[in-house]
Amino acid sequence: MTTTAKPNTGFWIIAGLALLWNLIGVFFWVSENFLMTEEVKATLPPEQVEMMNNAPTWGMYVYAVAVFGGLLASILLLMRKKMAIAIFGISLLAILIQMGYWIFGMDSVGVMGPQSLIMPLIVIAIAIFEYFYSKGAARNGWIG
Fold first, then answer.
1. What's the distance, Cα to Cα, between the start and end of the chain in Å?
2. pLDDT per residue as tens digits for the range 28-78
3. Residue 115 belongs to a domain
4. Within-domain flag for 43
5. Where are the alpha helices (H) located in 1-144, listed in sequence order?
6. Cβ neighbour number for residue 97 with a 10 Å cutoff
7. Is residue 39 in some structural domain?
8. CA angle at residue 127 from 48 to 129, to 5 degrees?
9. How many CB atoms lie within 10 A of CB 7?
10. pLDDT tens for residues 62-72?
11. Tally of domains in the chain
12. Predicted confidence (pLDDT) per residue in 71-98, tens digit
């Protein structure tokens, strides 16, 4: 099926913001996995450093699927490709696994307090929005 409907301005703004958001996610992944020196760790609260040191290795890979998947999906959305829906879905699943483990498996609230829930909940909410927005864009014929 070819796309016949021209996306409105809101589509381009939301798709551009999704791209920016996911680029920020990739930046944080690279920072945490390649740029986190002992000097940087020394500036963080000891509880946070301990949690980072005790995080399972598989978490890094799930985190990578989440952020690079979101980035790829955002690019596909801007290219008006329907594949964005599936990739946003995979990214959302990875985010739910990652954040679920952070919250429940590592007991982030017990270690760092309830404020440790704020960012994970924002990330989950945005990922849910991106997934359903891409589905709506397909329904409107903006992507195909």
1. 6
2. 999 999 988 888 888 988 888 888 888 999 999 999 999 999 999 999 999
3. yes
4. yes
5. 9-34, 38-42, 46-54, 57-78, 83-100, 108-112, 118-139
6. 17
7. yes
8. 140
9. 18
10. 999 999 999 99
11. 1
12. 999 999 999 999 999 999 999 999 999 9
